[in-house]
Amino acid sequence: MEISNKQFMRMFALALLVSTACAQADQDWSQQARELTQRYPLIDTHVDVPYRLNESWQDVTVATQTGDFDYPRAVAGGLDIPFMSIYTPGGLKSTARNYQLANQLIDGVEALVGRAPAKFMQVRSTRDVAVAMEKGLIGLAMGMENGSPINGDLENISHFARRGIRYITLAHSHSNDISDSSFDTARPNGGLSDFGREVVTEMNRVGVMVDVSHLSDEAIRDVLEVSAVPVIASHSSARKFTPGFERNLSDELILAIAENGGVVHINFGSAFIIPEANKLLNDFRVARDAYLEEHDFEPGGEEDAAYRAEFLQNVKFVYATTAQVADHVEHVIGLTGIEHVGIGSDYDGVGPTLPVGLKDVSQYPNLVAELLARGYGEEDIAKLLGGNLLRAWRAAEAFAESR
Hints:
The chain has helices spanning 5-39, 49-55, 71-77, 95-115, 126-135, 155-162, 194-206, 217-226, 251-259, 270-273, 275-295, 302-313, 322-336, 364-373, 378-402; strands at 43-47, 81-87, 120-122, 138-145, 165-169, 209-211, 232-233, 263-266, 341-343. By secondary structure, the chain is α/β, with parallel strands linked by helices. The protein has a single domain, classed as TIM Barrel. The strands form two sheets. Strands 1, 2, 3, 4, 5 and 6 form a six-stranded parallel beta sheet that branches. Strands 7-8-9 form a three-stranded parallel beta sheet. Mean pLDDT is 93; it is low at 1-26.
């Protein structure tokens, strides 16, 4: 059938209209996403700024050329409450040194607030979250990544709570006197140690949330058995997409955390999201660990950072996409409902492995836009951004206040 010029023009106009409508729809998701990140508390449970600044200081109260976080980008992304990670490397040989480093990093967060009180405030409670939102300040909460700074003394949990720590990741890349690590082939505790069980009980008592990220499967099960309040995974993704990667959570554990009332916060690092990047991470870890052991270098030091940079420079890294991060969010929702998922990006912690479209703290709206396009509504987004974490945090506070 021949098409007249008039018919062709009508068809062209219709196609143009549809194309324009689609483009407007995409634009609308982006605009709505930005509005939602500004309207609701956006809480990222894992941002590694303190360790980054301790290694190489920069003034993050203004724009910086490197790193994933600074004040202008946080404002642009709608970030309200980043949990500053008080990270001590799992391989440090002295827990006393970990204790010293943890306090030093907390000092750094307090100094940051002191330098820019018109931009930042320290957040110690869910009530402080509301105050920060009302004042238009970015509230710096703190979580301690690695329980080794407890240094075998339960009183140190109260010490760190007084300093503002509101969750503790019980172990990091190496098993310690509290818990076995998912990254460590040595599992001396068979899960939580007896001391680790006491640690969880004491954290419940003083209102510090228990973070199960980095723990072995057995240790997570033990935590869920002991904890009287909801736990969190501050920066873990779904193992379904990275088979065999114990650092991510199995469906069984995601369901168990949900049954406990807890929240799984999705890590953005590409190696946590897609198997191709995960394989590269595993290859890197094996080679890096052998290199550090051969030269007696400690994890987290300058030599470690230099080795990582050289390794990534010499491989063709495969980056995840924002859509693939959304797949992890949707997977948790599909298992548990919307009430048990949140954001734990690991910005400034996973190095140059962040997904396309989620390269720094200015880009949270891209993930929100992707979820809006998939049909999630405003109430769902509000829970993901921070509502779910606030619920778990309030439960920890309420339990401590009742003791």
